[in-house]
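One thing: mind reviewing this one?
=====
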Amino acid sequence: AQLAESGGGLVQPGGSLRLSCAASGDIYYIHGVGWYRQSPGKQRELVARITNKNNTYYGDSVKGRFTISRDYAKNTVDLQMASLKDEDTATYYCNQNIQTNGGVYAEYWGQGTQVTVSS
């Protein structure tokens, strides 16, 4: 299986962006999915996750501004980001826990998409 991310870019403070991540390939079932981010010199941190029971979890810094959603039919997970701040600037990574048709369960990461918030 592989993940393809899209939607990053440059946005002004207060603006919005939507990230999308699509999984393809050998997929039997997708368990939890999420978005993480990493800035230079910092550790990768959780932005948002959604379980296969649709329970959602958000990092404290994005609560109330970001919304995660998933489409089980399309194997996608989206991140709607609003009221963006300079400190949201980072590389954002999609994460999906995928079970293949062969029964292998593994964690997959996207290649990362850059989000830059700047005036």
